[in-house]
Write a structure and sequence with these properties.
With 361 residues, this protein is of the alpha+beta class. The protein has 6 helices and 17 strands.
C-alpha cells in the first residue's frame, strides 16, 4: 500500500519555560478525534526519544496551541491548549498553560490573526480550556513582533523582549471555585493540604510533612519513588474533592511541595506535573501558589514572606530561580477574598515556521 504525507502549516515557539507547536485553528480538523491522532503523529511516540516526531521527550516540550479568531466581543483570539501524552497515546485539554500562552500573542500577529500596532500590541486571549481571559502586551515596534530584549526569566538562557500577561479573574477555572473543597485546608491520609484553583488546580503540601527539605533538585525528587507514590495516592484521593472526578489519567491537579523561601522570595516550591518534577514552575501554577500565600490559614500562608501591600508582588521560588506574580485583590465585599488580576512577565521566541508532515489518514 502506498502511503502519502500531508503538510500542515505550523510554528514552533518557546513560550516562557516551555516549547510548543502552534497551529492556526483553520489548519487542523474540527473533529477532535482526528485532530488528536494527527497531533500524536506530529509529536511522535510512544518511544521516549520521540524519534519519529518533533516532541522533545518531556512534558514541557509536548505542548500544542491552537489559535483562531474569536467570536467574542471581549477577545481577539481563542486559544486552546493541548498537552500531548505520547506514552499514553492521548491528548488532554483539561488544563491551561500560561507559558505556552505567552507565545500566543506573537504567533497571532505573525499568522495574520491580529493586526499589530506600534510600539506595543495588546492581544486579548480567550482561554478555551478555562473560559477565562488574559491580556497580552507584545512589543511591536514599526508594526512587527520584536523578540530581542533585555528581560530574563529563570529557566531560560539569555534574554528577550518582555511579554506582559495579565490574567483576568481566573479563579475556579477548572474546579468551579477558588477553594473547590470549600475549605482553606483539608487533611488527607494524615497530611494537611490546601486545594486551590486560581488558573491552575494545585494541591499545596508542606515538604517537611514528607521528611524532605523542599529544596531538593528535580532529579533527586524524580528518583524518590516512595515520595512520588505518596503524592500520586493523595492526588487521586483529592481529585474528586476538587470537582475533577477521577484524575488518574489527568495532568491536574498539580502537586506542589512548599517550604520557606531561601533566596529572598516569598515561598519555595517543587511542583510535580503531575508525575515529573517541574524544572521551574508553570505560570498559572505560580499564580495559584501566590494566591495561596495570601489566604489566611492555608498551607503556604504561615511560611510565606508576603509584602505588606494592598496589591503585592510575590516571588515564587522554584528549582531554576523564581517567578514574580503581581496580585490585584478586591476585598470590597466583606469576608470575600477575590483576585481580580494576576500579572506575570514572560518572554517568547519564534524557533521555526513552516510545515510539519503527517501520514494521511
Amino acid at each position: 500500500m502506498t502511503r502519502t504525507q500531508t503538510a500542515i502549516p505550523c510554528a514552533i515557539l518557546r513560550g516562557g519555560t516551555s516549547r510548543g507547536v502552534y497551529f492556526r485553528r483553520q489548519d487542523l480538523p474540527g473533529d477532535a478525534r482526528l485532530r488528536d491522532r494527527i497531533l500524536l503523529q506530529v509529536m511522535g511516540g510512544p518511544d521516549p526519544l520521540q524519534i519519529d516526531g518533533i516532541g522533545g521527550g518531556h512534558p514541557l516540550t509536548n505542548k500544542v496551541a491552537i489559535v483562531g479568531p474569536s467570536a467574542r466581543d471581549d477577545a481577539d483570539v481563542d486559544y486552546l491548549f493541548l498537552q500531548v501524552k505520547p506514552e499514553e497515546s492521548r491528548v488532554s485539554d483539561v488544563q491551561n498553560c500560561g507559558n505556552i500562552l505567552a507565545g500566543v500573542g506573537p504567533f497571532a500577529i505573525e499568522a495574520g490573526l491580529v493586526t499589530a500596532g506600534s510600539p506595543h500590541t495588546r492581544v486579548r486571549v480567550y482561554m478555551v480550556n478555562s473560559g477565562s481571559l488574559c491580556e497580552l502586551t507584545v512589543e511591536t515596534p514599526d508594526g512587527a513582533v520584536n523578540y530581542a530584549g533585555e528581560t530574563t526569566i529563570d529557566g531560560v538562557p539569555g534574554s528577550a523582549a518582555a511579554i506582559v500577561c495579565d490574567f483576568l479573574d481566573v479563579a475556579g477555572s477548572a474546579c468551579g471555585d477558588l477553594l473547590p473543597t470549600g475549605n482553606t485546608t483539608d487533611t488527607i491520609d494524615g497530611v494537611q493540604v490546601t486545594c486551590i484553583d486560581n488558573g491552575m488546580p494545585v494541591v499545596l503540601l508542606r515538604a517537611a510533612d514528607f521528611a524532605i527539605s523542599g529544596y531538593e533538585s528535580p532529579d533527586e525528587l524524580d528518583a524518590n519513588d516512595d515520595l512520588k507514590a505518596r503524592l500520586e495516592a493523595l492526588r487521586c484521593k483529592v481529585g474528586p474533592l476538587m470537582n475533577l472526578d477521577d484524575v488518574a489519567g489527568l495532568s491536574v491537579p498539580k502537586m506542589c511541595l512548599v517550604a520557606e523561601p531561601r533566596h529572598g522570595g516569598s515561598l519555595s516550591t517543587r511542583t510535580f506535573i503531575p508525575h515529573v518534577c517541574h524544572r521551574s514552575v508553570g505560570v498559572l501554577g505560580a499564580v495559584t501558589v501566590a494566591t495561596a500565600c495570601l489566604l489566611p490559614g492555608s498551607v503556604a500562608n504561615h511560611i510565606a514572606v508576603v509584602p505588606d501591600e494592598r496589591d503585592p508582588t510575590l516571588a515564587i521560588e522554584h528549582p531554576a530561580g523564581s517567578m514574580s506574580v503581581r496580585l490585584v485583590t478586591d476585598q470590597s465585599v466583606e469576608g470575600k477574598f477575590r483576585i481580580v488580576k494576576a500579572g506575570v512577565i514572560r518572554t517568547a521566541r519564534m524557533l521555526l515556521r513552516g510545515d510539519v508532515f503527517v501520514w494521511s489518514t
